[in-house]
Design goal:
about 55% helix; mainly alpha; globular
Length: about 100
């Protein structure tokens, strides 16, 4: 059966990217927002639709679509927060990880 809607960009992971995503999902010190983004990317990569991936992970299809697009465009860096128009960040990712680990 043909899928309706706009065609989606193919999401092809390298072995290193697949291992990194799996590692972040399994690590207990990973921030949950990052782990959810990794979890969304994995089923979408496996051929699931954005709607199916979102339903499985209690998210929205819009969020799954946004994650797919950002990952295809920026690879792993696209999973993180993208620059916002309101000035530079004052807290680094390393500082956030240190607080979570503590």
């Amino acid at each position: 059966m043909a899928r309706a809607g706009r065609p989606k960009a193919d999401l092809i992971l390298s072995d290193a990217e697949r291992a990194a995503l799996r590692g972040w999902v399994r690590r207990r010190s990973t921030p949950q927002a990052w782990a959810l983004r990794c979890r969304i990317t994995r089923p979408v990569r496996a051929g699931a639709s954005n709607k199916d991936a979102a339903a499985r992970l209690v998210s929205t299809p819009h969020a799954a679509d946004r994650r797919r697009k950002r990952f295809v465009e920026h690879r792993i860096a696209g999973l993180g927060g993208m620059p916002r128009p309101d000035g530079p960040r004052t807290v680094t990712d390393e500082q956030v990880a240190a607080v979570v680990k503590r």
